[in-house]
Amino acid sequence: MDVPFLDLARQYRKIGSEVGAAVASTLASGYYVLGSRLAAFEREFAIYCGAHYAVGVGSGTDALHLALRACGVRPGDRVITAPNTAAPTICAIAQAGALPVFVDIEPRTLTLDPEKLATYLAAQPAPFRVRAIVPVHLYGHPAAMREILAIAAAYDVRVIEDAAQAHSAEYEGRRVGGMADASCWSFYPTKNLGAYGDAGMVVTNDPQLAERVRMLRNYGEEAKYENRVAGVNSRLDEIQAAALRVKLRHLDGWVAARRRLAARYDALLAEAPVVRPIETEAARHCYHLYVIRSPRRDALRKHLEKRGIGTNVHYPVPVHRQAAYRHLEYAEGDLPCAEWACRQVLSLPLYPELADDELEHVASAIREFRD
Protein backbone atom coordinates (compact mmCIF):
# COMPACT_ATOMS: atom_id res chain seq x y z
CA MET A 1 0.00 0.00 0.00
CA ASP A 2 1.29 3.48 -0.91
CA VAL A 3 0.54 6.17 1.68
CA PRO A 4 1.39 9.73 0.62
CA PHE A 5 2.71 12.05 3.30
CA LEU A 6 0.02 14.57 2.30
CA ASP A 7 -2.70 14.62 -0.34
CA LEU A 8 -4.42 18.00 -0.55
CA ALA A 9 -6.52 16.90 -3.52
CA ARG A 10 -8.54 14.63 -1.23
CA GLN A 11 -9.75 17.63 0.73
CA TYR A 12 -10.57 19.58 -2.41
CA ARG A 13 -12.65 16.72 -3.77
CA LYS A 14 -14.84 16.94 -0.67
CA ILE A 15 -15.35 20.70 -0.55
CA GLY A 16 -14.60 21.71 -4.14
CA SER A 17 -18.17 22.69 -4.96
CA GLU A 18 -18.38 25.02 -1.92
CA VAL A 19 -15.02 26.61 -2.69
CA GLY A 20 -15.83 26.89 -6.38
CA ALA A 21 -19.07 28.73 -5.68
CA ALA A 22 -17.34 31.17 -3.33
CA VAL A 23 -14.55 31.86 -5.83
CA ALA A 24 -16.96 32.21 -8.74
CA SER A 25 -19.01 34.73 -6.78
CA THR A 26 -15.84 36.68 -6.02
CA LEU A 27 -14.77 36.70 -9.65
CA ALA A 28 -18.22 37.86 -10.73
CA SER A 29 -18.12 40.72 -8.22
CA GLY A 30 -15.30 42.47 -10.02
CA TYR A 31 -13.64 43.37 -6.69
CA TYR A 32 -10.46 41.47 -5.91
CA VAL A 33 -8.33 43.37 -3.36
CA LEU A 34 -9.21 44.73 0.11
CA GLY A 35 -12.91 44.12 -0.29
CA SER A 36 -15.84 42.74 1.67
CA ARG A 37 -14.74 39.11 1.63
CA LEU A 38 -11.43 39.88 3.28
CA ALA A 39 -13.14 42.11 5.83
CA ALA A 40 -15.57 39.30 6.64
CA PHE A 41 -12.81 36.71 6.95
CA GLU A 42 -10.82 39.02 9.22
CA ARG A 43 -13.83 39.39 11.53
CA GLU A 44 -14.56 35.67 11.53
CA PHE A 45 -10.97 34.61 12.16
CA ALA A 46 -10.52 37.13 14.98
CA ILE A 47 -13.65 35.74 16.66
CA TYR A 48 -12.39 32.20 16.10
CA CYS A 49 -9.13 33.07 17.89
CA GLY A 50 -10.95 34.86 20.72
CA ALA A 51 -9.38 38.19 19.77
CA HIS A 52 -10.66 41.60 18.70
CA TYR A 53 -8.78 42.29 15.47
CA ALA A 54 -7.32 40.40 12.52
CA VAL A 55 -5.46 41.84 9.54
CA GLY A 56 -4.98 39.74 6.40
CA VAL A 57 -1.58 39.84 4.73
CA GLY A 58 0.22 38.07 1.92
CA SER A 59 1.87 35.23 3.88
CA GLY A 60 2.74 33.96 7.32
CA THR A 61 6.25 35.37 6.91
CA ASP A 62 4.80 38.79 6.13
CA ALA A 63 2.54 38.49 9.18
CA LEU A 64 5.57 38.08 11.45
CA HIS A 65 7.56 40.79 9.69
CA LEU A 66 4.78 43.37 9.88
CA ALA A 67 3.79 42.44 13.44
CA LEU A 68 7.39 42.91 14.56
CA ARG A 69 7.52 46.33 12.94
CA ALA A 70 4.12 47.29 14.34
CA CYS A 71 5.35 46.30 17.82
CA GLY A 72 8.22 48.75 17.53
CA VAL A 73 11.06 46.43 16.57
CA ARG A 74 13.78 48.55 15.00
CA PRO A 75 16.95 47.78 13.03
CA GLY A 76 19.58 46.47 15.42
CA ASP A 77 17.11 45.20 18.02
CA ARG A 78 17.34 41.58 19.11
CA VAL A 79 14.41 39.18 18.75
CA ILE A 80 14.45 35.86 20.59
CA THR A 81 13.02 32.70 19.08
CA ALA A 82 13.57 28.94 19.01
CA PRO A 83 16.24 27.42 16.73
CA ASN A 84 14.21 24.40 15.54
CA THR A 85 11.68 26.42 13.58
CA ALA A 86 11.24 26.86 9.84
CA ALA A 87 13.49 29.42 8.19
CA PRO A 88 10.58 31.82 7.46
CA THR A 89 10.43 32.72 11.16
CA ILE A 90 14.01 33.97 10.92
CA CYS A 91 13.46 35.59 7.52
CA ALA A 92 10.73 37.74 9.07
CA ILE A 93 13.00 38.86 11.93
CA ALA A 94 15.74 39.76 9.45
CA GLN A 95 13.28 41.64 7.22
CA ALA A 96 12.39 43.81 10.21
CA GLY A 97 16.09 44.68 10.49
CA ALA A 98 16.45 42.84 13.79
CA LEU A 99 19.03 40.33 14.94
CA PRO A 100 17.71 36.80 15.57
CA VAL A 101 18.73 35.37 18.95
CA PHE A 102 18.17 31.70 19.70
CA VAL A 103 17.20 30.20 23.04
CA ASP A 104 17.12 26.44 23.35
CA ILE A 105 13.98 24.33 23.61
CA GLU A 106 12.66 21.97 26.26
CA PRO A 107 12.76 18.27 25.33
CA ARG A 108 9.12 17.24 25.79
CA THR A 109 7.23 19.64 23.53
CA LEU A 110 10.30 20.91 21.60
CA THR A 111 9.09 24.49 22.15
CA LEU A 112 10.94 27.45 23.68
CA ASP A 113 12.21 26.64 27.17
CA PRO A 114 11.00 29.31 29.66
CA GLU A 115 13.81 28.59 32.13
CA LYS A 116 16.47 29.07 29.47
CA LEU A 117 14.67 32.19 28.27
CA ALA A 118 14.72 33.68 31.77
CA THR A 119 18.40 32.79 32.19
CA TYR A 120 19.30 34.44 28.89
CA LEU A 121 17.43 37.65 29.66
CA ALA A 122 18.84 37.88 33.18
CA ALA A 123 22.38 37.71 31.79
CA GLN A 124 21.99 40.60 29.32
CA PRO A 125 23.96 43.76 30.09
CA ALA A 126 22.62 47.28 29.60
CA PRO A 127 21.68 48.89 27.27
CA PHE A 128 18.95 46.34 26.87
CA ARG A 129 18.25 45.65 23.18
CA VAL A 130 15.94 42.61 23.22
CA ARG A 131 12.69 44.02 21.84
CA ALA A 132 10.54 40.93 21.26
CA ILE A 133 10.14 37.19 21.83
CA VAL A 134 8.68 34.95 19.13
CA PRO A 135 7.59 31.62 20.66
CA VAL A 136 6.77 29.01 18.04
CA HIS A 137 3.76 26.71 18.58
CA LEU A 138 5.61 23.85 16.95
CA TYR A 139 3.74 21.09 15.09
CA GLY A 140 0.46 22.32 16.63
CA HIS A 141 1.44 22.13 20.30
CA PRO A 142 1.41 25.53 22.07
CA ALA A 143 4.53 26.87 23.72
CA ALA A 144 4.43 27.53 27.48
CA MET A 145 2.73 30.89 27.10
CA ARG A 146 1.93 31.56 30.77
CA GLU A 147 5.61 31.40 31.72
CA ILE A 148 6.83 33.18 28.58
CA LEU A 149 4.38 36.06 29.01
CA ALA A 150 5.36 36.48 32.67
CA ILE A 151 9.06 36.60 31.79
CA ALA A 152 8.43 39.07 28.96
CA ALA A 153 6.41 41.34 31.26
CA ALA A 154 9.24 41.39 33.79
CA TYR A 155 11.61 42.71 31.11
CA ASP A 156 9.10 44.86 29.19
CA VAL A 157 9.56 42.79 26.04
CA ARG A 158 6.83 42.27 23.42
CA VAL A 159 5.59 38.75 22.62
CA ILE A 160 4.52 37.78 19.11
CA GLU A 161 3.30 34.22 18.66
CA ASP A 162 4.35 32.24 15.61
CA ALA A 163 1.07 30.35 15.26
CA ALA A 164 1.64 29.17 11.69
CA GLN A 165 1.11 25.54 12.74
CA ALA A 166 -1.43 26.11 15.51
CA HIS A 167 -4.86 26.54 13.90
CA SER A 168 -7.38 25.41 16.56
CA ALA A 169 -4.75 24.60 19.19
CA GLU A 170 -5.65 25.59 22.75
CA TYR A 171 -3.72 26.68 25.80
CA GLU A 172 -5.28 26.70 29.26
CA GLY A 173 -8.75 26.38 27.79
CA ARG A 174 -8.41 29.19 25.24
CA ARG A 175 -7.70 29.00 21.56
CA VAL A 176 -4.24 30.13 20.64
CA GLY A 177 -4.18 33.61 19.14
CA GLY A 178 -5.34 36.12 21.72
CA MET A 179 -2.81 35.82 24.53
CA ALA A 180 0.21 37.83 23.36
CA ASP A 181 0.71 41.27 21.81
CA ALA A 182 0.02 39.61 18.47
CA SER A 183 -0.23 36.19 16.90
CA CYS A 184 0.87 35.47 13.35
CA TRP A 185 -0.73 32.90 11.10
CA SER A 186 0.13 31.20 7.84
CA PHE A 187 -2.54 29.88 5.52
CA TYR A 188 -0.03 28.11 3.30
CA PRO A 189 -1.85 25.22 1.58
CA THR A 190 -0.45 22.53 3.89
CA LYS A 191 -1.71 24.16 7.10
CA ASN A 192 -4.73 22.98 9.07
CA LEU A 193 -6.48 25.98 7.53
CA GLY A 194 -4.81 26.36 4.16
CA ALA A 195 -5.41 28.68 1.23
CA TYR A 196 -4.87 27.84 -2.44
CA GLY A 197 -1.63 29.79 -2.46
CA ASP A 198 0.09 32.08 0.02
CA ALA A 199 -1.85 34.01 2.65
CA GLY A 200 -1.37 35.12 6.25
CA MET A 201 -2.93 36.99 9.16
CA VAL A 202 -1.97 39.09 12.16
CA VAL A 203 -4.34 38.75 15.12
CA THR A 204 -4.28 41.09 18.12
CA ASN A 205 -6.35 42.70 20.85
CA ASP A 206 -4.52 46.02 20.41
CA PRO A 207 -6.39 48.42 18.09
CA GLN A 208 -3.33 50.58 17.49
CA LEU A 209 -1.18 47.60 16.56
CA ALA A 210 -3.89 46.37 14.19
CA GLU A 211 -4.08 49.78 12.54
CA ARG A 212 -0.31 49.91 12.09
CA VAL A 213 -0.33 46.50 10.39
CA ARG A 214 -3.16 47.65 8.11
CA MET A 215 -1.06 50.62 7.03
CA LEU A 216 2.14 48.62 6.64
CA ARG A 217 0.50 45.96 4.45
CA ASN A 218 -0.76 48.60 1.99
CA TYR A 219 2.27 50.80 1.24
CA GLY A 220 2.00 52.57 4.58
CA GLU A 221 -1.17 54.39 3.51
CA GLU A 222 -3.28 56.02 6.20
CA ALA A 223 -5.69 57.13 3.48
CA LYS A 224 -5.52 56.77 -0.28
CA TYR A 225 -2.29 58.36 -1.55
CA GLU A 226 -1.42 59.50 1.97
CA ASN A 227 1.57 57.46 3.11
CA ARG A 228 2.16 57.79 6.82
CA VAL A 229 4.90 55.15 7.15
CA ALA A 230 7.19 53.22 4.80
CA GLY A 231 5.12 50.14 4.08
CA VAL A 232 5.00 47.19 1.71
CA ASN A 233 2.55 45.44 -0.59
CA SER A 234 1.25 42.45 1.38
CA ARG A 235 -2.50 41.96 1.10
CA LEU A 236 -4.57 38.81 1.47
CA ASP A 237 -6.61 38.90 -1.73
CA GLU A 238 -10.37 38.50 -2.06
CA ILE A 239 -10.24 35.13 -3.81
CA GLN A 240 -8.14 33.54 -1.09
CA ALA A 241 -10.30 35.17 1.58
CA ALA A 242 -13.45 33.73 -0.02
CA ALA A 243 -11.95 30.23 -0.07
CA LEU A 244 -10.67 30.53 3.50
CA ARG A 245 -14.11 31.58 4.76
CA VAL A 246 -15.49 28.31 3.37
CA LYS A 247 -12.68 26.28 4.88
CA LEU A 248 -12.94 27.96 8.29
CA ARG A 249 -16.40 26.44 8.66
CA HIS A 250 -14.81 22.98 8.35
CA LEU A 251 -11.77 23.60 10.57
CA ASP A 252 -13.15 22.22 13.84
CA GLY A 253 -14.22 19.01 12.14
CA TRP A 254 -10.87 18.62 10.43
CA VAL A 255 -8.96 19.12 13.68
CA ALA A 256 -11.23 16.64 15.46
CA ALA A 257 -10.30 14.13 12.75
CA ARG A 258 -6.60 14.93 13.20
CA ARG A 259 -6.90 14.35 16.94
CA ARG A 260 -8.72 11.05 16.41
CA LEU A 261 -6.02 9.87 14.01
CA ALA A 262 -3.27 11.01 16.38
CA ALA A 263 -4.88 9.04 19.22
CA ARG A 264 -4.95 5.99 16.95
CA TYR A 265 -1.25 6.43 16.18
CA ASP A 266 -0.60 6.75 19.93
CA ALA A 267 -2.32 3.45 20.61
CA LEU A 268 -0.73 1.54 17.74
CA LEU A 269 2.77 2.87 18.45
CA ALA A 270 2.68 2.37 22.22
CA GLU A 271 5.17 -0.51 22.01
CA ALA A 272 7.05 0.69 18.93
CA PRO A 273 10.74 1.70 19.07
CA VAL A 274 9.94 5.43 18.79
CA VAL A 275 9.03 8.36 21.05
CA ARG A 276 5.51 9.64 20.41
CA PRO A 277 4.46 13.31 20.65
CA ILE A 278 2.99 14.48 23.93
CA GLU A 279 0.17 16.81 24.90
CA THR A 280 0.83 18.71 28.12
CA GLU A 281 -1.90 19.26 30.68
CA ALA A 282 -2.23 22.94 29.73
CA ALA A 283 -2.45 22.29 26.00
CA ARG A 284 -4.79 20.94 23.37
CA HIS A 285 -2.68 19.82 20.42
CA CYS A 286 -4.14 20.50 16.96
CA TYR A 287 -1.77 18.00 15.29
CA HIS A 288 -0.75 20.01 12.29
CA LEU A 289 1.96 17.35 12.25
CA TYR A 290 2.34 14.03 14.03
CA VAL A 291 6.05 13.93 14.83
CA ILE A 292 7.80 10.95 16.36
CA ARG A 293 11.43 10.75 17.45
CA SER A 294 14.00 8.03 16.88
CA PRO A 295 17.79 7.99 17.26
CA ARG A 296 17.76 5.94 14.03
CA ARG A 297 15.52 8.39 12.22
CA ASP A 298 17.20 8.19 8.80
CA ALA A 299 17.19 4.40 8.74
CA LEU A 300 13.54 4.36 9.85
CA ARG A 301 12.63 6.82 7.11
CA LYS A 302 14.26 4.61 4.46
CA HIS A 303 12.45 1.59 5.91
CA LEU A 304 9.10 3.38 5.56
CA GLU A 305 9.92 4.61 2.06
CA LYS A 306 10.51 1.00 0.94
CA ARG A 307 6.99 0.23 2.12
CA GLY A 308 5.49 3.07 0.09
CA ILE A 309 5.06 5.45 3.02
CA GLY A 310 5.80 9.14 2.63
CA THR A 311 7.39 11.01 5.53
CA ASN A 312 9.02 14.39 6.10
CA VAL A 313 11.46 15.98 8.53
CA HIS A 314 10.47 19.21 10.27
CA TYR A 315 13.28 20.29 10.49
CA PRO A 316 16.55 18.48 9.65
CA VAL A 317 18.93 21.36 10.43
CA PRO A 318 18.33 23.91 13.22
CA VAL A 319 18.37 27.45 11.90
CA HIS A 320 21.48 28.48 13.84
CA ARG A 321 23.43 25.83 11.89
CA GLN A 322 22.15 26.91 8.46
CA ALA A 323 24.68 28.49 6.08
CA ALA A 324 22.54 31.62 5.71
CA TYR A 325 22.96 32.41 9.42
CA ARG A 326 26.63 31.63 9.98
CA HIS A 327 27.19 35.33 10.62
CA LEU A 328 25.30 34.91 13.92
CA GLU A 329 28.32 32.88 15.08
CA TYR A 330 26.60 29.98 16.78
CA ALA A 331 28.67 26.82 17.07
CA GLU A 332 27.75 23.15 17.11
CA GLY A 333 26.66 22.31 20.65
CA ASP A 334 25.50 25.81 21.60
CA LEU A 335 21.85 24.74 21.57
CA PRO A 336 22.06 21.03 22.30
CA CYS A 337 18.39 20.18 22.78
CA ALA A 338 17.39 21.68 19.43
CA GLU A 339 20.32 19.97 17.70
CA TRP A 340 19.39 16.63 19.27
CA ALA A 341 15.74 17.02 18.28
CA CYS A 342 16.55 17.89 14.67
CA ARG A 343 18.53 14.66 14.37
CA GLN A 344 15.59 12.56 15.61
CA VAL A 345 12.26 14.05 14.47
CA LEU A 346 10.19 12.37 11.76
CA SER A 347 6.76 13.52 10.58
CA LEU A 348 4.27 10.79 9.69
CA PRO A 349 1.27 11.06 7.35
CA LEU A 350 -1.57 12.81 9.19
CA TYR A 351 -4.45 14.69 7.56
CA PRO A 352 -8.23 14.49 8.00
CA GLU A 353 -8.73 12.41 4.86
CA LEU A 354 -6.13 9.76 5.84
CA ALA A 355 -7.88 6.38 5.86
CA ASP A 356 -7.71 4.11 8.88
CA ASP A 357 -6.12 1.29 6.90
CA GLU A 358 -3.46 3.67 5.62
CA LEU A 359 -2.63 4.77 9.16
CA GLU A 360 -2.54 1.15 10.33
CA HIS A 361 -0.14 0.33 7.49
CA VAL A 362 2.17 3.14 8.66
CA ALA A 363 2.04 2.01 12.28
CA SER A 364 2.61 -1.63 11.35
CA ALA A 365 5.70 -0.71 9.32
CA ILE A 366 7.11 1.28 12.24
CA ARG A 367 6.54 -1.61 14.64
CA GLU A 368 8.42 -3.90 12.23
CA PHE A 369 11.47 -1.64 12.15
CA ARG A 370 14.53 -3.36 13.56
CA ASP A 371 17.41 -2.03 11.43
Give structural notes.
The chain has 371 residues and is an alpha/beta fold. Helices cover 40% and strands 14% of the residues. It contains twelve helices and 14 strands. The strands form four sheets. The protein has a seven-stranded mixed beta sheet with strand order 1-9-8-5-4-2-3, sandwiched between helices. Strand 2 (78-81), helix 4 and strand 3 (99-102) form a beta-alpha-beta unit. It starts with 7 loop residues before the first helix and ends with a helix. The model has no long low-confidence stretch (mean pLDDT 97).
Q: List the total number of helices.
A: 12
User: Termini distance?
Assistant: 21 Å
Number of strands: 14
CATH topology of the largest domain: Aspartate Aminotransferase, domain 2
- Structural class estimated from helices and strands: alpha/beta
Flag low-confidence runs.
Answer: none
How would the blueprint of this fold be written?
Layout lengths: L7 H22 L6 H14 L3 E5 L2 H11 L7 E4 L5 H9 L3 E4 L11 H9 L7 E5 L10 H11 L2 E5 L7 E2 L2 E2 L6 E5 L13 E5 L2 H11 L3 E3 L2 E2 L10 H11 L2 H18 L14 E2 L5 E4 L3 H10 L29 H9 E4 L7 H13 L3
Parallel strand pairs: 2-3, 2-4, 4-5, 5-8
Antiparallel strand pairs: 1-9, 6-7, 6-12, 8-9, 10-11, 13-14
What labels would you give this structure?
single chain, 371 residues, alpha/beta, Aspartate Aminotransferase, domain 2, Aspartate Aminotransferase, domain 1, 2 domains, seven-stranded mixed β-sheet, three-stranded antiparallel β-sheet, 14 strands, globular
